[in-house]
Amino acid sequence: MKFISVFVLLISSLVCSSYANATIIYNIEVRGSIVGEPYTTGSFLDSVGSNFGFFANFHLDVGEAISSRVNWEGYEVWELEDPSLNLGSLGCIGDGRDPRCVGTSSVEIEFQDSRSEKWASNPDFAFLGLTEDDVSYDIIGVGMPMSDTTHSLEYYMFLVFEDGLFDGYSIDGLPKTIDMSKLQFAAAEFYQEDTHSRGEGFARLDISTLALTQIAEVPEPSSLAIFALGMMGLASRKMKRKA
What we know:
Helix content is 16%, strand content 42%. The protein is α+β, with helices and mostly antiparallel strands.
């Protein structure tokens, strides 16, 4: 009996540890409008002033990524896809009841550590309305990857936090949760390659609403816990035989 009690305590601690290291599944909803020139170019000029929406389910455990790539800025981007967790992303452009929407069953995650720019004086960032240059921020990007199902349309949402959220790019050191109390501002953009009838273009977006919600908490599986359960079963059978 004492033997079984010890295993019960062991399993309980493993289960608690598993939930402490759980993967948090988030839902993000972003809405706003497409800004004008010079921030928007090409085929997107026809949509200046139109509404947009972006919706995604994702987590930050890039150790579970199905692939990764390095983008044009030199940052590594991880692609996450897991039907059992309902991960995915959807982007929509347009007004009324018939917006143009494309989506995919995967989502991309990007981290930028201590990024510093001429946030106020660089015309490229003027639409953000920032007032200080050379401020360092930690950035988490959430995006809709370009694919056949999105007609080569790519969306990126950048959540910009106080510096210190993470340090470096070691997977073990990257954040697994998001503290929105440290959010400073957010930015978003669409890009489409010239491989579709709608043509090539780039659009920066004026965000009006942003909502981030935790929708699930998935405990990490523990092989040690499974082993302990098996041992407990064997011990139970042994006790019954003695009885």
